Amino acid sequence: MLDWYKIRLFFISFLFLLVLTPISLAVPPATEVFVGGSEGMDIKYPPYSIFPKETIELEFHIFNKSSGYPLTDNIDCFFHLYNKTSYHILILNDSTPSYTFDYSFEIGKDNFTYYGWYSYIVSCNTSNIGGFVAEPFEITETGEEEPAQDNEDEYFLYFVFILAVMLLIISFIKNDHNLASVSGMILIILGGYIIASGFGSFTNSLSNGLGISLIGIGIYILLRSNIDFLTGD
After folding, report:
1. pLDDT one-digit tens code per residue, 117-138
2. Whole-model pTM?
3. Per residue in 19-61, pLDDT tens?
4. What HEC string does the chain produce?
5. Are residues 40 and 20 both part of a single domain?
6. 60 and 102 together in one domain
7. What domain range is 219 assigned to?
């Protein structure tokens, strides 16, 4: 049996912990509206949370928190768009309201590279007061609520990961270098996919860290199995 297989129990346990531990740190989509103090801005918006994968226009109204009067003069508003891993996709600015009250932001469909969850933050301010709103929203094919594709994608990634681990276990039992190599290649591909596409509601840094770790482990397994095969261990 290969010398490096002596650490198989620790190695396999570490692989499972590597994927399962960050779940407790995943950040789900959240809604937040600025509410502090009796002065400042109230930012109001239509409560739509699902859109088709098309260019969309979001409208916002701004009111004085203390008086309720609409604010339209000398205000800068910024729109920030993020993907499901908190990667900053887009920033827009509007300082001139249309239709008397509306601050409007047009988000081109090219910014929506996948179906699923995105989020935005709108922050507005004058020279002395400000406010913000943060909202998640979902992009679907029809603009209607659909079964959660993200869950299906996650299940598939778990299946691929379990397949890689099972192949590694079988390679330990059969002392088969080829199965170990296949397991390593699967982990490398899986890690690259997670870096490129994210993983569930993990933040960008968590997804990248998970992907890099899987790639590193996969490279080690692949190289070590081939080295041991060539040396006849």
Report:
1. 899 999 998 888 888 999 999 9
2. 0.51
3. 555 544 444 444 444 444 457 888 888 888 899 999 999 989 9
4. CCHHHHHHHHHHHHHHHHHHHHHHHCCCCCCEECCCCCCCEEEECCCCCEEECCCEEEEEEEEECCCCCECCCCCEEEEEEECCCCCEEEEEEECCCECCCEEEEEECHHHCCCCEEEEEEEEEECCCCEEEEEEEEEEECCCCCCCCHHHHHHHHHHHHHHHHHHHHHHHHHHCCHHHHHHHHHHHHHHHHHHHHHCCCCCCHHHHHHHHHHHHHHHHHHHHHHHHHHHHCC
5. no
6. yes
7. 3-27+148-231
